[in-house]
């Protein structure tokens, strides 16, 4: 799938939050969307998900997003909101099955293909052991994986995830990132809003660095995570490790 | 592990229970007297009267119990799903208060004595007016919260006007009539009234039921539901308009019957694995069963003033709700 975002502008409560952002993604990739708090990462993702109005164009395989019917858009783009949760104590298997709603004809029962997609998503996210559990009785890390499995079950060519590893311990952070990596390796595109720069450097193919609503840098993790970029956007001095096990260790606030 | 739920078995059992109560409602009279006994007695002298009692008194009463109960249960379940709030109930939309006000005005101006049809007509007009005002208040792109706040405001205003009508009521008799009507009852209703409210209820049910899958998706929040292919604007409009039409029509003909729309979805939720979409049909059936059962309780006392249905549902509903709260408190971790 080819995703092209051209000159995207979006406003929140009258204030312009995204200013002329453009980028294109060709084929399968795990893209990290990074930048300090309040630069518009969530707004950008929500615009691409079709949740807020915007100016400019977003096309999927050259088809404008605005022209897609909600059901078709729902099959093309899966979205996992920041801090997502369930309002009712649903059984895990039922919650994951909600990801198949865009594929169900009115009044149709889930077909074998839907059941297979649910099983694949649960397997990929490693949540089969919770299958009959009430989702509200799971721990934060377990619940995050179940909600991710719901988004995976859509099997959309583009998956948008907003801060999937926030509030998780290192083990569960790695677990989620591995799931996303595996999903991208199956031939899909992921755009993930991330705050942990080390995880972004380790797992992503490409990083988009947003600053004040504009695209500050776009490239491989090594290209984007430079001392200059971190100083200019995050206002930090950091030790940056390169090679096969890259890391970003924030040292102090930049003067 | 949660218990395996079989939604079809739940629905079938509830349908059977509702059918049983419907038949009981037709055959059991005041003080538990069976229509069959009366029938045997009367049919010897005048068979036409027995048929008349059946068709013109018992049947509309049982039908209204069925329709009104189903409406309250269905709309309560849908609104709780839409708002993702277990405390939501059909009255929140404001249409039921509008309907009550419309009907009360008919009493106030003394039209009710002329023909019994004018009360439900006034009620439905009141409900439609309330929905119209709700639409104007909610604005072009309303959030669910805005709509509910507008509904609450309309409810409060209609309640105030209803109180004003009571306050200024021309005679104590008129005031008493209004108060008794508002307590909610299925007695002395005609088939004509049933036919009058049925289309409003039918359209309301279809609108509400059409949101079923979106209610499931809404378990994960409005954004997620929108990215699962549901237009939240359309879903909200259908659920609110459908509830307003159906519940407004129900209140127009029976007065206010409380607690059914609030309590029944709670009863049914554990039986269907908590899924909002699977909750709609059982709540409709359960609501019908509860109202039919309460209407049987109303008939038990032989002497004294007639018990009102709305009083009985509240008397049954409120303690039950307390029990639910206590149970939830016990189960809370």
Question: How does the SSE layout of this entry go?
Answer:
The complex is a heterodimer of chains A (about 260) and B (about 325).
Chain A: E1 2-12, E2 15-26, E3 29-34, H1 41-48, E4 55-60, E5 63-64, H2 70-76, E6 77-80, H3 92-97, H4 112-125, H5 140-153, E7 158-162, H6 170-185, E8 189-193, H7 197-203, E9 206-211, E10 214-219, H8 221-224, H9 227-234, E11 236-241, E12 247-253
Parallel strand pairs in A: 3-8, 3-9, 6-7, 7-8
Antiparallel strand pairs in A: 1-2, 1-4, 4-5, 9-10, 11-12
Chain B: H1 7-27, H2 35-45, H3 47-83, H4 95-108, H5 118-138, H6 144-167, H7 172-182, H8 191-209, H9 212-217, H10 222-227, H11 232-254, H12 260-268, H13 276-298, H14 309-331
Helix pairs in contact in B: 1-3, 1-13, 2-3, 3-8, 3-11, 3-12, 3-13, 4-5, 4-6, 4-7, 4-11, 5-6, 5-11, 8-11, 12-13, 13-14
Q: Please tally the β strands of chain B and state the result.
A: 0
Overall SS class of chain B: mainly alpha
Please give the CATH architecture of chain B.
Answer: Orthogonal Bundle
Strand order within the widest beta sheet of chain A: 6-7-8-3-9-10
Strand % of chain A is 25-35%
**Uncertain stretches of 5 or more adjacent residues of chain B:** none
Mean pLDDT of chain B: 88
- What is the CA–CA distance across the termini of chain B? 16 Å
CATH topology heading of chain B: ABC transporter involved in vitamin B12 uptake, BtuC
Q: Determine the most extensive contact between two protein chains.
A: A-B, 36 and 22 residues
Shape of chain B: globular
Sheet-strand content of chain B, in percent, reads: under 5%
Helix count of chain B equals: 14
Q: What name is given to the CATH topology of chain A? A: Rossmann fold
**H-E order of chain A:** EEEHEEHEHHHEHEHEEHHEE
Q: What is the CA–CA distance across the termini of chain A? A: 43 Å
């Amino acid at each position: 799938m080819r995703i092209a975002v051209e000159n995207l502008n979006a406003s929140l409560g009258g204030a312009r939050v995204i200013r002329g952002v453009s980028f294109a993604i060709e084929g399968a990739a795990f893209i990290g969307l990074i930048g300090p708090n309040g630069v518009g990462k969530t707004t950008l993702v929500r615009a691409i998900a079709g949740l807020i109005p915007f100016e400019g164009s977003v096309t999927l395989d050259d088809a404008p997003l605005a022209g897609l019917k909600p059901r078709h858009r729902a099959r093309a783009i899966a979205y996992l909101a920041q801090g997502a949760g369930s309002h009712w104590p649903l059984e895990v298997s039922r919650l994951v099955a909600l990801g198949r709603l865009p594929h169900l004809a009115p009044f149709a029962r889930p077909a074998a293909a839907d059941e297979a997609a649910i099983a694949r998503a649960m397997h990929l996210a490693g949540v089969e052991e919770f299958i009959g559990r009430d989702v509200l009785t799971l721990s934060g890390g377990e619940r995050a994986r179940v909600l991710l499995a719901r988004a995976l079950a859509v099997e959309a060519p583009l998956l948008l995830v907003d801060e999937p590893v926030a509030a998780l311990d290192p083990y569960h952070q790695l677990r989620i990132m591995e799931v996303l990596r595996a999903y991208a390796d199956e031939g899909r595109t992921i755009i993930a809003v991330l705050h942990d720069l080390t995880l972004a450097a380790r797992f992503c193919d490409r990083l988009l660095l947003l600053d004040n609503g504009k695209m500050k840098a776009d490239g491989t993790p090594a290209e984007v995570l430079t001392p200059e970029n971190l100083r200019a956007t995050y206002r930090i001095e950091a030790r940056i490790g390169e090679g096969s096990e890259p890391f970003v260790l924030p040292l102090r606030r930049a003067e | 592990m949660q218990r395996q739920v079989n939604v079809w078995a739940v629905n079938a059992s509830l349908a059977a229970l509702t059918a049983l109560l419907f038949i009981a409602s037709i055959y059991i009279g005041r003080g538990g007297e069976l229509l069959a006994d009366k029938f045997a007695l009367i049919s010897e002298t005048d068979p036409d009267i027995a048929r008349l009692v059946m068709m013109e008194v018992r049947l509309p009463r049982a039908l209204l119990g069925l329709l009104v109960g189903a409406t309250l249960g269905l709309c309560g379940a849908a609104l709780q799903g839409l708002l993702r709030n277990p405390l939501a109930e059909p009255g929140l939309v404001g249409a039921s208060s509008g309907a009550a006000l419309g009907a009360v005005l008919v009493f106030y101006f003394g039209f009710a004595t002329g023909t019994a049809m004018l009360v439900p007509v006034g009620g439905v007009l009141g409900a439609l007016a309330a929905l119209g005002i709700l639409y104007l208040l909610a604005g072009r792109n309303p959030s669910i919260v805005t709509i509910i706040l507008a509904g609450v405001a309309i409810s409060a205003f209609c309640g105030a006007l209803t109180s004003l009508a009571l306050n200024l009521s021309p005679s104590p008799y008129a005031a008493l009539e209004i108060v008794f009507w508002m307590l909610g009852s299925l007695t002395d209703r005609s088939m004509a009234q049933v036919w009058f409210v049925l289309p409003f209820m039918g359209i309301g049910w279809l609108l509400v039921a059409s949101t079923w899958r979106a209610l499931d998706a809404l378990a994960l929040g409005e954004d997620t539901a929108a990215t699962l292919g549901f237009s939240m604007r359309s879903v909200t409009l259908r659920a609110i308009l459908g509830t307003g039409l159906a519940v407004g029509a129900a209140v127009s003909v029976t007065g206010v019957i409380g607690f059914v729309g609030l309590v029944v979805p709670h009863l049914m939720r554990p039986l269907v694995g908590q899924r909002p979409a699977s909750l709609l049909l059982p709540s409709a059936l359960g609501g019908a069963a509860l109202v039919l059962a309460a209407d049987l309780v109303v008939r038990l006392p032989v002497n004294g003033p007639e018990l009102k249905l709305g009083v009985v549902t509240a008397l049954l509903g409120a303690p039950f709700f307390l029990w639910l709260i206590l149970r939830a408190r016990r189960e809370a971790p």
